[in-house]
Design brief:
Radius of gyration: 25 Å
Shape: globular
CATH topology of the largest domain: Rossmann fold
Structural class: alpha/beta
Largest sheet: 6 strands, mixed
CATH class of the largest domain: Alpha Beta
Number of domains: 4
Helix content: 40-55%
Length: 505
């Protein structure tokens, strides 16, 4: 199998449009990890992503009759741009189906490359279903984003370049994983030439379909309700059939990382390159840091693939907020203090000389108040020491460093009015970023439910994060859930969330 892929990689046609990207030394990361780290800069491709390689190799292999029929793809991101550029270069028609909530920057980028765009649905599955329908109806050739041998071979040229450019064989190569096309192509080539080189796939925690498949020994489909959408470039529910066939032979290990760890990796890449990677593009860097720390690696030659830089500018605010948490240099705490004179000063004395990154105060009653505080820490161990210090001083402390509702919403809402005697249930939603999304939500709810609180933040992504309170009690939970299911948006109940209990009730 590996020999077959190596031959296809060596004969691929990607360099008609793709460039051989540099293997760049990462000085800051190398010093921190105690290992020489080099970055494979696929963010420097003409479309700022490796996806041009596989898309072009697939389309260039089509027969003249197939090319005359035109190609179609379902994608809201880098694959769409790869297909559009490849089709333009070869002079053939391309149709791209995208969700209606696709950010305009991505729609415009694909349109500028000459492709016809069809907006449909709110998810990849919706877009893929219509693309399949149009393929059947119009006779187009469907270009799969990852589960195709020619696409895999095109992506495998990244591995070929790594082996040609690196001085000696690398010890470990870290590759981001979505559907598996990139890790399959790279691992097939690298393992053929250097079986001792370890291939580590890196996935976002909420979309770890390869890790699930490896554990089960077969492909597993992750439920959409739990799918992580932050690193949208790798947000895939099921690894490909062909890609898994290669990965289970060639991939040594899979590491999963959190949103905060990805944000920290974006900052690391900026510090080393002055370039800004997209979340999926920095995924492998986050995995490399986690892998190296867990094993205390020393002097191992590490190569990490920076896969793309198509990030919306609006997302940088959210990314910068989370980077310090991902680096474990900040903790978020909810602290209860006495509502008496001098208690604020005593609390600050308990914090000592630590730097405060955020501070919100909330009056709770005549006897107590709640403080939402962000603190800079020198090392992860300092987090536990700070908690012990505050508890020993007699404060009630809730560690909210890993609390999504606290970090996305509550930190911006401290000080809101309390409900008094009314009952309230709280839910966190992901709304598609498209016109009419809020109206659809309210229309389905009708006049049955009174909204007591609403907080929305745009993060420059296809999905907005929304926190909604309803005037309802626990006995209404099942009936309300039936209404929310009809809306069709993903949601999580947050009524018992300590951040809500401390600062918004």
């Amino acid at each position: 199998m590996l020999e077959k892929y190596v031959k296809k990689i060596l004969s691929s046609k990607v360099y008609d449009v793709a460039v051989e990207t540099p293997l760049q030394v990462a000085g800051n990361l190398s010093r921190r990890l105690g290992c020489p780290v080099t970055l494979k800069r696929e963010d420097l491709q003409p479309i700022f992503s490796f996806k041009i390689r596989g898309a072009y190799n697939k389309i260039a292999q089509l027969s003249p009759d197939q090319q005359a029929r035109g190609v179609i793809a379902a994608s809201a991101g880098n694959h769409a741009q790869g297909v559009a550029l490849a089709a333009r270069h070869l002079g053939i028609k391309a149709t791209i189906v995208m969700g209606r909530n696709t950010p305009s920057i991505k729609v415009n980028a694909v349109r500028d490359l000459g492709a016809r765009i069809v907006l449909h649905g709110d998810s990849f599955d919706d877009a893929a279903a219509l693309a399949a329908e149009l393929t059947e109806k119009e006779g187009y050739v469907f270009v799969h984003p990852f589960d195709d041998m020619d696409v895999i071979a095109g992506q495998g040229t990244v591995g070929m370049e790594i082996m040609n450019q690196h001085s000696g064989n690398p010890d470990v190569v870290f590759v981001p994983v979505g559907g598996g096309g990139l890790v399959a192509g790279i691992s097939a080539y690298v393992k053929y030439l250097s079986p001792r080189t370890r291939i580590v796939g890196v996935e976002a925690e909420g979309s770890a379909c390869l890790a699930a498949a490896m554990a089960a020994g077969r492909r597993v489909r992750l439920p959409f309700e739990s799918l992580d959408l932050f690193a949208d470039g790798v947000s895939v529910a099921q690894v490909g059939r062909e890609t898994f066939k290669v990965a289970k032979v060639c991939v040594d290990e899979v590491v999963t990382v959190t949103t905060d760890e990805i944000c920290a990796a974006i900052k690391d890449l900026y510090d080393d390159t002055r370039s800004i990677a997209e979340p999926a593009g920095a995924l492998a860097v986050a995995g490399m840091k986690k892998y190296a720390d867990a094993r205390s690696l020393v002097d191992k030659k590490l190569v990490v693939v920076v896969s793309g830089a198509n990030v919306n500018f609006d997302r940088l605010r959210h990314i910068s907020e989370r980077a310090e948490l991902g680096e474990q240099r900040e903790v978020i705490l909810g602290v209860t203090i006495p509502e008496v004179r001098g208690s604020f000063r005593r609390f600050c004395n308990a914090l000592g000389k630590r730097s405060v990154s955020e501070f919100n105060y909330r009056y709770a009653s005549d006897t107590e108040a709640h403080v939402y505080v962000g603190m800079e820490i020198a090392a992860p161990a300092d987090r536990a020491a700070l908690l012990d210090t505050l508890c020993e001083a007699g404060y009630g402390v809730e560690d909210m460093t890993d609390n999504e509702a606290a970090k996305l919403h509550v930190r911006h809402m401290v000080g809101g009015r309390r409900l008094g005697g009314k009952s309230e249930l709280l839910y966190r939603f992901e709304f598609p970023e498209r016109p009419g999304a809020l109206l659809q939500f309210l229309s389905v709810l009708g006049t049955e439910w009174n909204i007591t609180m609403f907080h929305y933040r745009n993060h420059g992504a296809a999905w907005g994060r929304v926190l909604v309170g309803f005037e309802a009690n626990t006995g209404d939970r099942r009936t309300l859930a039936a209404y929310l299911k009809r809306v069709g948006y993903r949601y999580w109940e947050e009524t018992e969330n300590p951040a809500y209990q401390l600062f918004l009730r």
